[in-house]
Amino acid sequence: MKVLANDGISKSGILALEKGGFEVITTKVAQEQVANFVNENNVSVVLVRSATKVRKDIIDACPGLKIIGRGGVGMDNIDVDYAKSKGIHVINTPASSSESVAELVFAHLFSGVRFLHDSNRNMPLEGDTNFEGLKKAYANGIELRGKTLGVVGIGRIGQATAKMALGLGMKVIAADMFIPQIDVKVEFFDGQSITTTIVSQSLESLFKEADFITLHVPAQDGYIIGEKELAIMKDGVGIVNCARGGVIDEVALVKALDSGKVLFAGLDVFENEPTPEMAILMNHKISMTPHIGAATGEAQDRIGTELASQIISLMK
Fold it and tell me: Is residue 296 classed as helix, strand or coil in its secondary structure?
């Protein structure tokens, strides 16, 4: 039985699948050729990340398809309900990349409060001629300790982010319409741990109270943060989005950055992927990464082996 890992899969995942009797194909097939490739090669399982889309047209065109797998959490690039209605199993790995995404959130937070993203642009250009000027420009850093982090969406990734924030000595508040409260356990290297309860509050109160805001929500029909929401936030707020593009109104965000309402933003996802707007790319107050939240070796190993385990279990 053949598996097409069109957006790649870790070596550990390939080995686990091959041990289970599957042939793994890692050839990158263009979106418009996926259906033909699946049929011509008798592929039974298609694995994707965020790049490849498995919509109704592919599902209808591939009667031999038995499993669609998403290496990661969100499945907005797959027509999940339609696939299930056709008897196709749809699987994902919601827990495998939580820590990796949470660490990237803090990479952006640390970058923002210490201007690292801008400093790293300007030091190679001016470090030898304007050292004292740059030192003065980046001298007004902010500590995260003691500040309030607002977590919008307190699911697995939101909880992992909350744990890191608590470890830094931050106050954590959350807004989640599906999770009224959650016990968050912070575990330490020596086996000790502490547990705290986070009670969900309204989005409006979170926006008003938080010093920094991080989003952990699936794709939405509209914006979670737009002009209205930005207006009620604290002056000098920092905003990080390592969830999905399109949940922040980027035009409104740029205006808020330019006015000083928002101190900085950290973006791993964008409204227009894979071609973010130039106004975003050129803004010196935005720390940016190209949708790499789950892109750590450890996370990809977990994703690959978890997908393999699910596939083997389903196809036994």
Answer: coil
Which one of the listed residues 23, 103, 209, 273 is annotated catalytic?
A: 273
Q: Check residue 281 and give its pLDDT.
A: 98
Task: Round to whole Å and give the CA distance between 315 and 281.
Answer: 45
User: Are 183 and 67 within one domain?
Assistant: no
89 is catalytic: no
| Same domain assignment for residues 113 and 149 | yes
CA–CA distance from 94 to each of 69, 89, 165 (Å)? 11, 16, 21
Average pLDDT, the chain: 97
* List 49, 108, 156, 291, catalytic entry: 291
Which of 108, 244, 250, 271 is catalytic? The answer is 244
pLDDT digits (tens, 9 = 90+) for 155-189: 999 999 999 999 999 999 999 999 999 999 999 99
Residues 11-39 pLDDT 10s: 999 999 999 999 999 999 999 999 999 99
What is the domain extent for residue 79?
A: 2-94+297-315
Is the Cβ–Cβ distance between 198 and 181 less than 8 Å?
A: yes
Output the CA angle 92-96-99, nearest 5 degrees: 140
Q: Are residues 140 and 272 in the same domain?
A: yes
Question: Same structural domain for residues 280 and 306?
Answer: no
Give the global pTM: 0.91
Active site residue 291: yes
Catalytic residue at 244?
Answer: yes
Q: How far apart are CA 170 and CA 163, in angstroms?
A: 10
